[in-house]
Amino acid sequence: MPTIGVAVAIPEPWATQLQDYRTSVGDAMAATIPTHITLVPPTDVTDEELAEIEVHLAEAATEVAPFEVHLRGTGTFRPVSPVVFVSLVEGISQCEQLASVVRRGPLAVDLAFPYHPHVTVAHDIAEGRLDQAFGELADFECEFDVEDFQLYVHDHEQGWTPTRYFPLAAGT
User: Fold this and answer.
1) Contact 150, 166 (CB under 8 A)
2) For residue range 137-155, what is the model confidence (pLDDT) as tens digits?
3) Is the pLDDT of residue 111 over 90?
4) So what's the pLDDT on residue 158?
5) Contacts by residues 110-116 (CB-CB < 8 Å, ≥ 24 positions apart)
6) Which CATH architecture has domain 3-164?
7) What whole-number distance in Å separates Cα of residue 135 and Cα of residue 146?
8) Which phi and psi (to 5°) does residue 40 adopt?
9) Residues 6+ apart with CB under 8 A from 37
10) How confident is the model at residue 160, as a pLDDT?
């Protein structure tokens, strides 16, 4: 049974920069998780559902126009969850809209927490390391255009691998 996720990939050079940083603070999962903004969290599906999901995602992509994301500074979900992230200061509502469109039909999943678009840079590591990440990336900033989103499939050896890209098309 495949485990999938749907996300907006962070482009280079920032993807590698943030992934390398995540590795440097001791996040053991960093090497297997591409830098991203989650739209649909890890979800188990059947092979039959996967084909239906791909059709759904292609249709969903036609409902949202490309948009800009501006990342700046850090935030945290502590004490609820041991996560430090880079914050979105632009593109929040567009990510919320995209996540809402994607999480319909075959991907109508219940979320453990309210949706909050972000880029994780440290997860489930020692408190001191979480504090370090929060402080050291406080000045991080980048801007980029979001023109698509990806379907990822989890492989136990290789981690999360993008398997299909869905170009955003509304209004273009």
Assistant:
1) yes
2) 999 999 999 999 999 999 8
3) no
4) 87
5) 111/41, 112/41, 113/77, 113/80, 113/81, 116/77
6) Alpha-Beta Complex (3.90)
7) 27
8) -130, 120
9) 7, 8, 10, 69, 88, 95, 117, 118, 119
10) 96
